[in-house]
Recover the amino acids of this structure.
């Protein structure tokens, strides 16, 4: 499933191809995404210029002079920039044809993706209005993590993966960030010290930033997300490394199941 770094990589990948471009036409080949695509979008968006390619959580925002397209890649969606004449393949559901002769093509085998259009402020759209802070923005800081952990007995790993508290910290990045912060995944959230909160915030930001950087530089022809962490995998400290030596202390990495997801950690490095 595309996580925040993959979506940000996609945003950076498509940005130079779409910003400043006029939309020639939007073609919906199959409306049956997670929610049916409104056929009226095509009329609303035709002839409009894309002014900005933004992102909020895992939503891509294509802002035009008439309104904003809100696109979610779902579980299996990807975007590719192709010459508009490229024959479609199976699961190519939407084309956003540009005046450059290229098309932004959305492919989604499992159809959990979605496409909406809003003429208002996209951040007030029902899908985006109640989203928690972005992990890479300043509002996600040690004070904030300190505050939200005080009364919560839940394990810290599950807390940082709770999208009502902070968006976009998926399973891989949660395990990695806790290793970097030297905090055990099962610790009760409220047991973290102020200093540990600060360390964990820094670790989350560093982990996600590196994932975006690596995704952006090694997946050159990939402007979409295939769900794989790509070359980031080679740099992982603990994720899917059960039994292998810790890169810091050489003790074997351990694994257990937490909230139905695999968690990886080093019993020696993490307290
Ligand atoms: Zn270790």
């Amino acid at each position: 499933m595309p996580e925040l770094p993959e979506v940000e990589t996609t945003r950076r990948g498509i940005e130079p191809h779409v910003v400043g471009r006029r939309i020639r036409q939007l073609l919906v080949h199959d409306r049956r995404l997670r929610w049916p695509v409104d056929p009226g979008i095509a009329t609303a968006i035709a002839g409009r210029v894309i002014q900005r390619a933004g992102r909020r959580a895992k939503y891509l925002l294509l802002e035009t002079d008439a309104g904003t397209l809100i696109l979610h890649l779902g579980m299996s969606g990807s975007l590719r920039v192709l010459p508009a004449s490229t024959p479609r393949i199976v699961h190519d559901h939407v084309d956003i044809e540009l005046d450059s002769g290229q098309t932004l093509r959305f492919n989604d085998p499992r159809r959990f993706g979605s496409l909406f259009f809003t003429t208002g402020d996209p951040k007030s759209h029902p899908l985006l209005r109640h989203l928690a802070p972005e992990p890479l923005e300043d509002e996600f800081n040690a004070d904030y993590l300190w505050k939200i952990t005080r009364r919560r007995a839940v394990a810290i790993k599950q807390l940082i993966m709770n999208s009502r508290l902070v968006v976009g910290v998926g399973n891989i990045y949660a395990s990695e960030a806790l290793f970097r912060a030297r905090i055990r995944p099962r610790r009760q959230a409220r047991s973290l010290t102020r200093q540990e909160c600060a360390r964990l915030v820094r670790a989350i930001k560093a982990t996600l930033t590196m994932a975006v950087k690596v995704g952006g530089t090694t997946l050159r022809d990939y402007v979409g997300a295939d769900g794989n962490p790509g070359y980031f995998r080679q740099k992982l400290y603990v994720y899917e490394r059960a039994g292998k030596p810790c890169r810091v202390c050489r003790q074997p990495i351990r694994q257990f199941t937490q909230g139905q997801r695999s968690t990886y950690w080093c019993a020696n490095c993490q307290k």
